[in-house]
Structure formats: C-alpha cells, structure tokens
Design brief:
mainly alpha, elongated
Amino acid sequence: MKVFAKFVVVACIGLLSWWQMGFHLQAGVVTGGLILLGAVAAWLTASSRRSGYTVAALLGLGYLAEILWMVDRSNLYYMSPLLGWSAGLFGAGAGLLWATRERPKPKPVYERHPEY
C-alpha cells in the first residue's frame, strides 16, 4: 500500500506541476520554484523520506487552496479533476506521514506480566 501511495504522490506532483507551469507562466520565478519544490518532493518521496511526504502534503494543500482561491465558483466544476488530484496528493502525503510515524515499542512479555 505504501508503494502505491508513493506512486500516487509522485504522479500527482508531476501532473500538478505541469498544470502549474501552464497556468502561471507569467510569474516565472514562482512557477519555477514550485516546480523545483515538486521535483524535490517527488525525489524524496520516491526514496522513502518523511520530509518528502511532508512537502508533498503541503504542496497538495497549497494547490488545493490555490485552485479554490483563483478559480471562480461558477467554473469550479471544470477544475474538479485538478481538485481531485490535489486532494489526493494531500491525502496520500498525509496518509504516508501517518503510516510511517514512530510508534512506541511494546514492553517485553516478562515486563507486561510481572506476576509470571
């Protein structure tokens, strides 16, 4: 499941970065920075680093907020695939963060049951 979630994260970053490049071509520095950040997040995610999951979740949340802020409410229906991809990116990044969290190790059996 983690491998599929990583694939979804990398695919979402690729698609949304391509959309970002076509949508905000007039702000070249910002667009280039976001595409570079997406490439770094995809590389970190593909190499199973938690920082990549964090950046991917934040990128998904940012793209989701940008779509909701920039697009008129009447045209939001036409942006539903990108809304789904950005929500999927956020969900997959957050899910990978949750799945790879540090868990406390259970005590050995002889410490859990001292009467034995």
